[in-house]
Specification:
The structure holds two protein chains of two kinds. Chain A is an alpha/beta fold. Chain A has one domain. Chain A is built from five helices and seven strands; from the N terminus they run H-E-E-H-E-E-H-H-E-E-H-E. Chain A is globular and about 45 Å long. The relative contact order of chain B is 0.18. Chain B has three helices and three strands. Helices cover 34% and strands 15% of the residues of chain B. Chain B has a three-stranded parallel β-sheet with strand order 1-2-3, covered by helices on one side. The N and C termini of chain B lie far apart (51 Å). Chain B is of the alpha/beta class. Chain B has a domain of 65 residues. Classes of the chains: A alpha/beta, B alpha/beta. The interface between A and B is large, with 72 and 64 residues. Strand 7 of chain A pairs parallel with strand 1 of chain B.
């Protein structure tokens, strides 16, 4: 590995992606109100849920709609899926047109580390693993309103119903 | 709901204003680590939990992980260009 000390968010993305996305990001810090909910209990007591944007669904569930995006590149499937805590790469499928999903299909933990979370709960790093975890499909094109106004609140309500204390969101 | 985002494109914090960001320099598709690399997956997950527990409001915490491959050897692209990428490239090619 090369001896680099600086971290570069575009190191693996390539110049095309860097130029396409980077130009949209302002140079100045975020000036709006940042939402804030402190952890209500120590981590060792906290129930943790995971969310991925990898377009994961159970094999017997309706998959994320890739044809929608193929027909209109400005639109992505805004729905979400529930994944049980014992989901594995054998029980889920990944539908996402912007990444190589082969890695997730071989090891779910690269994007939704349920095995790792279970292990950490077993040794007391966190209190417990939520029964349900979540996937959205990260590409929303130029309209994320359905995701924001319908899917996100539904996910939050589902987490509250399961008394989730902490959600780890990991875009892919 | 307390949340932390494990984010490979952490500059988006300047646009979005997430509560807490654990910034990680990993390739798209594998935020927690590579296939079969349980040690890295666990370490990244633990680091994200630590950020959730200790970060200040709006803080971006750079996680100290280096991907095990050079960018030129790291595969993450889909087999076919995504529809939006294909659209952009086609539009650029059609411009005089």
């Amino acid at each position: 590995m090369s001896d680099v000390t600086e971290y570069d968010p575009w190191r693996f993305a390539g110049s095309f992606i860097r130029n396409a996305l980077g130009s949209q990001i302002p140079d100045s810090p975020f000036a709006g109100e940042i939402p804030w909910t402190p952890l209500a209990k120590p981590l060792v007591q906290a129930r943790v849920a995971l969310l991925t944007t990898a377009g994961l669904s159970l094999r017997d569930d309706e998959p994320f709609d890739m044809e929608m995006e193929r027909k209109n590149p400005m639109r992505g499937d805004p729905s979400f899926r529930r994944l049980p805590a014992d989901a594995t790469s054998d029980t889920v499928v990944a539908n996402h047109l912007h990444i190589d999903t082969g890695f997730i299909e071989r090891d779910l933990n690269v994007a939704l580390p349920l095995d790792r979370l279970r292990e950490l709960a077993a040794v007391g790093v966190v209190g417990s693993v939520a029964d349900t975890h979540y996937s959205i499909m990260g590409y929303q094109g130029n309209d994320a309103s359905t995701l924001e106004k319908e899917s996100a609140p539904a996910i939050a309500e589902s987490m509250r119903n399961e008394e989730v204390d902490l959600a780890i969101l990991a875009p892919v | 709901m307390t949340t932390v985002t494990l984010n490979m494109l952490w500059p988006y914090q300047r646009m979005i204003g997430m509560p807490r960001v654990a910034a990680i320099e990993h390739p798209f598709g594998r935020p927690y680590g590579d296939v079969g690399d349980a040690a890295t997956q666990t370490a990244v997950l633990r680091a994200a939990l630590e950020v959730a527990d200790t970060a200040k409001r709006g803080e971006v915490v750079q996680l100290p992980f280096r991907w095990h491959e050079e960018p030129k050897d790291t595969k993450w692209h889909p087999a076919e260009a995504s529809p939006i990428i294909a659209f952009i490239k086609k539009r650029r090619e059609s411009k005089p």
